[in-house]
Write a structure and sequence with these properties.
This is Cell division protein FtsL. It comes from Asticcacaulis endophyticus. Keywords: Membrane, Transmembrane, Transmembrane helix. With 157 residues, the protein is mostly helical. It is 51% helix and 3% strand. It is built from 4 helices and 2 strands; from the N terminus they run αββααα. Strands 1-2 form a two-stranded antiparallel sheet. Strand 1 and strand 2 form a beta hairpin. The chain starts with a helix and ends in a 51-residue tail after the last helix. 0% of the residues are buried.
């Protein structure tokens, strides 16, 4: 116990060592508290700036939603379709009934009440060249095994 009391009684240039350590710790705590407070102020300023940005973005989103709603009005789209694309509302003669759906799906007949099918404005697609070269027929017809294609990690064999 005397050893521990001697530590408290040691003096450095007339100041007890315990008092010197206490002063150093107090100064360190003051410096640390000031540094933490400075960081907190910077974070608060950054948070306020982010909140302002969020409010501005929300106002911009609201403005854009209003613009989209105005642009998506059916009357406006109908007018643009008729002016620029030459589109017009479908005539009631061009509507299909339930009985004609089978004929329409098979491609037979007009399928629509008294209206002939117009010729397709798009020509049929030419046949694409085959990616696999043609194989010459073999004369050996004794094999009746089916061709088996296996897909492996290395490739097809």
């Amino acid at each position: 116990m005397n050893g521990l009391l001697n530590v408290f009684e040691q003096r450095v240039r007339g100041v007890r060592l315990v008092e010197l350590v206490g002063i150093v710790l107090c100064l360190a705590m003051m410096f640390g508290l000031g540094w933490i407070k400075m960081r907190e102020d910077a974070d608060v300023k950054r948070l306020e700036a982010l909140k302002r940005d969020i409010v501005a973005e929300a106002e911009q989103v609201q403005t854009l939603r209003a613009a989209v709603a105005q642009l998506e009005q059916p009357k406006r789209i109908e007018a643009l379709a008729s002016v620029y694309l030459g589109m017009k509302p479908v005539d009631s003669r061009h509507e299909a009934n339930l009985d004609s759906l089978v004929e329409i799906s098979r491609g037979q007949g007009a399928g629509v009440r008294g209206v002939e099918r117009p010729a397709s404005p798009v020509p049929p697609m030419p046949e694409a060249p085959s990616a696999v070269p043609p194989v010459a027929p073999t004369t050996d017809t004794t094999t009746t095994e089916p061709l088996v294609i296996e897909h492996t990690v290395e490739g097809t064999r």
